[in-house]
Structure formats: structure tokens, C-alpha cells
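Dear Dr. L.,

I hope this message finds you well. Following up on our conversation about the binding site, I have prepared a predicted three-dimensional model of the protein together with thymidine-5'-diphosphate. For your records, I am including the exact sequence and ligand specification that went into the calculation, followed by the C-alpha cells. Please feel free to forward this to your student if that is useful.
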Amino acid sequence: MNNQVCRISGQSLTKSVDFGRQPLGNGFLLPQDYATEYFFPMVVGFSETSMMLQLIEQPAPEKMFHEHYAFYSSTSSYMAKHFAEFAQSVMGSGYLARIDPFVVELGCNDGIMLKNFFQAGIRHLGIEPSRNVAAVANTHGVRTLSEFFDEAVARNVVSQDGQADAFLAANVMCHIPDIQSVVKGIQALLKPTGVAVFEDPYLGDIIEKTSYDQIYDEHVFLFSAHSIKYLFGLHGMELIDVQAQKTHGGSMRYVLAHAGAYPVKKSVTELLAKEQALGLHLLSTFDKFRKNVERSRTDLLALLRGLKAQGKRIAGYGATSKSTTILNYCGIGPDLIDYICDTTPIKQGKFTPGMHIPVVPYETFTANPPDYAFLFAWNHAEEIMAKEKDFMAAGGKWIVHVPEVKVF
Ligand code: TYD
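The resulting structure of the complex is given below.
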């Protein structure tokens, strides 16, 4: 899918960073599949009209979200806690009807958040295109349809279950190229008093931390309050609240309602002002970002090659989708990183997309610890540091690339 024009404003996009040829972020594979591995040119573009940073080209969604989708939300205990809190905040928000509220979640994955509504006896429906994870949700008692959400699906839901009090999504909205259809669906789905509450990695954090690894095939959009306000404004909806989140290295939760249904909270005006100061509405900001990304690559390669020259052993920690961008953009392969450990069984025994570094079970890391561990799952740093006291006590060191390349 080649999109030289902004998916929101229809204006032409200005190229900002070119990450070169990239495979699927989650496309862990076996050697027999190397010959047919899929690659696409990954370039981000910006429109000053919509203020939306976005991938210019993106693989078809069917290539990324299917029955072999390698991502299960419930692999992190911190994320399970985060989603329980997200669910509690919606239940306690006052936006749900007192009698028989109805909550819909887009991209409910294995039911990590909706199970909290299920357990509270709240009428719910999950919509999850990846059939394997949707099946897991259903076995947990979370009512889930395996579909791509759009206006037509929203109208079907309304005709069967009625309008919803809340539409929820976490790390999903930024994945959907035809987001206009989703927003139209949300508009049709919600009661006049209903709210959409969703969170995604936040562009402000990406710019401030040079966390360019948040950019990969699945993240077609990198949202800010400016771009969300613009996008929903096109469909008669208003941004009424925002709440910064620590997840995924810095995310933003957005609350939207039909225009005029609720007052706009101070949090929104404050965030818009902060974004203006950071220049998230300006093309020139993304020129600076490109320079920072290039510098990060130079520093990282110098560090890894230097350590390797000293005979140090380097492994990766967490075979994240994010790491695919770093590895392929910087050209880091098994010559620099021996293996990447990961707790997700479906990734183990496979090789990383594009650069083909072996992914091994976590036990390999404890049995055969490296001198340096590149923290690819840096968004889970707190959880991992708490778990890896022995590695550090034995002299093991960490490499991170955000907010700058360093060893600690
Ligand atoms: P995630 O944070 O979802 O990143 P992305 O969206 O970029 O894929 O993925 C975290 C990965 O790290 C996941 O594959 C599980 C793995 N992981 C570990 O191996 N050990 C850990 O202690 C944690 C927290 C995660």
C-alpha cells in the first residue's frame, strides 16, 4: 500500500525519516522461510494540516494480524496490572450508564483488559482480528468477535447489542491505516453520552527520547493530542481529556466524546500547549528528529563494535517488535548480538525478522549470561531490573539506546 498522501487530511506527505528496507516487526521466522521473507521501504511522513506523523507505505494488515500473530498481551505481569487499572478507571469514571452499561474493546488481544469487565459482570464485546488471540479471549469468557473493526461492523454491533457507553482500545488505534472508517464506526457505536478511551505510544515521548524503535510496520500512526483532536474533529467528536501513561516507554490515553457532550478538561489545553512548545505541529521538528535518529545509530554501532573488539559477549533481552527497527536500520546481526532471549514460547527457536538473530528461551540467558545485555524491552525496564539482580550482581551490564545510547 503506497500512500504519498496523508490518510487524514488528503494533503501530500513530506518525508521525514527513511529507515530503509524493513521486514515485519513481529515476523519471527525459521531459516526455511528466509527466501520468501517480506520487506517494505519504511519511511515516515508528516502533514502540517493533520499534524499526523505516519508511515508512507505499510504492509497490508492481513500480513501482520493473522492466526499466527506472535504477540500475546498477557506475557507481562506489569501490563496485566496496567490493564486492570485501565478497566477500573473506566468503571469508576462516571461515563458508564448505571443500568446495564455496554463496553466494546477494539483489539482486545487475549482478553487482558476485558476480562476485568467480564469479572465485574459488565456487558462487553471484544473485536480482535487475529484469530488465535481472539480464541484465547473467548476461552477466558471474554465475548470476542474475530473481525477488522470499521463502520459496517460498528453498525452490526449496534443492531445486535445496542449503542455502547465506552469504546476502548490500547495499542491498537495507531495500527489501523483506514482510521477514518474506525472513527466513523466509533461515532456510530457510541451513545450520545458515550466515550472513546484509547491509548497508544505518544509522539511527544518518541521525539523527546529519540525512541525511533516505536516506528515499525504495525504503527502506521504516531499520535499526538494535536493529531487526535484534528482527526476526531473531522467526525464531530471532541478530545475531552488526556492522561499520560508510563507504558510502552511513554503513552498517552485520550478520551473523546461527541462534540459538546462534556466540558474539555484542563489536561487537554495543557498538553496542547506543551506540544506547541515541543513543535509537534511543525515539519522542522521531524528534521531534528531525523538527525537525532542518525546520531543514535552511529553511537550504537560504535558501542557494539567496540565491545565486540574487546571480545565481549552481547545478547539481546526481549525479542520486541521494536527491536526489528533498530536491528535492521542499524544493520545489527548475529555478528554483534549472539542471541535474544524472550519468554514468549511462539518466538523461541525462531530468528529475528530481517537480521536473523536466534531467539532463545529466557533460561538460556540465565544459564549462559552475556557480558552485556541489550535491553530491547526497555519499556519493561522496571520489571526486568527487579528480576535480574543476579545478572547485575555477577557483573552483567545493560545497553540501552534511549534517551541516548549508554551502558549501565
Ligand atoms: P512489548 O513490550 O510488547 O514490545 P513490542 O510491542 O515492541 O513487541 O514486548 C516485550 C517482549 O519482551 C515480549 O516478547 C516479551 C518479552 N519479555 C521478556 O522476555 N522478559 C520480560 O521480563 C518481559 C517483561 C518481556
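In brief: The chain has 14 helices and 17 strands.

With kind regards,
A. P.
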